[in-house]
Design a protein that fits this description.
Elements (H helix, E strand, L loop, with lengths): L4 H6 L5 E4 L6 H7 L4 E4 L2 E2 L3 E2 L2 E2 L12 E2 L5 E7 L2 E7 L9 H4 L5 E10 L7 E6 L3 E3 L5 E3 H9 L4 E7 L7 E6 L8 H16 L13 E3 L16 H7 L1 H8 L1
Parallel strand pairs: 1-2, 14-15
Antiparallel strand pairs: 3-4, 5-6, 7-8, 8-9, 9-10, 11-12, 13-14
Length: 249
């Protein structure tokens, strides 16, 4: 759709275009937003649709939502402005599907991490999972899913993963678009440096990425995908465990 001018122009007739299953890439959003308004449809297998409200105007970015009161959504602060979404049983919980699946519970921790908009209070953006945090051997770590989009902004990068669980430093694994797979490694690493530097501005010294710890995915070992089309983090990191080990041996 994004690559076809006639398809993009057809979107002008639509008030909203909803997307679901995984976060919309910044590249796709930049192509679509001049033609229509975007709105995420968020839910889970256990909880069904999350009864969210789309942003009322362009002052709130497309990827932020508010929750209806009856949804029973509570955001519990964890660290660094990150909150876990927890559903709490309401007196009238007839629309709270999660408590039909788990009738013995009064609360349900989703393990989804959210951030509130800095100025538009009450609007939230999903940014990852509680298990996206990469714990390093010295006890510090970094939240991978918050940083990976910075690398994915590179025009040659199809997907990026940050790993290194239990290692002394994080590792960056990059999957390139097909037309860039034959690129010379040194040149590609050099082209990634500004993006790595941008990530490192948000990290403590002991958890910074390094051009010397970059692994490029091969055609023989592509990133593993979930049924929704997103990257299966744990499975993909397991595929590249030998390469990760090699960086520290």
């Amino acid at each position: 759709m994004c690559r076809t001018p006639s398809s993009l122009n057809a979107l002008r007739r639509l008030k909203y275009v909803n997307y679901a299953g995984a976060p919309l890439s910044a590249k796709s959003a930049d192509l679509l937003t001049p033609y229509t308004r975007l709105a995420p449809s968020i839910g889970s297998t256990e909880g069904g649709g999350y009864f969210t409200k789309t942003a009322p105007n362009k002052d709130v970015p497309y990827d932020y939502v508010a929750f209806h009161d009856l949804a029973g959504a509570v955001f519990e602060h964890l660290y660094n402005g990150l909150h876990e979404l927890v559903f709490v049983r309401q007196a009238d919980h007839s629309i709270q599907q999660i408590f039909f699946v788990y009738p013995d519970r009064d609360r349900y921790e989703t393990k989804d991490l959210w951030m509130e908009h800095p100025t538009q209070k009450g609007y939230w953006k999903i940014v990852g999972r509680t298990d996206d945090y990469v714990y390093l051997s010295h006890g510090d770590g970094l939240h991978a899913s918050l940083l990976e989009p910075e690398i994915e902004a590179h025009p040659a990068v199809r997907a990026a993963l940050i790993g290194g669980y239990g290692r002394p430093a994080p590792v960056l694994i990059v999957q390139l678009y097909k037309e860039y797979e034959s690129s010379e490694r040194g040149e590609m690493v050099d082209s990634l440096r500004p993006y790595i530097d941008k990530v490192n501005l948000r990290c403590h010294d002991c958890v910074k990425l390094s051009p010397g710890r970059v692994i490029f995915a091969t055609k023989e070992k592509p990133f593993v995908q979930t049924v929704k089309g997103s990257v299966a983090r744990g499975s993909t990191l397991a595929v590249y465990e030998d390469e990760i080990e090699g960086l520290f041996s």
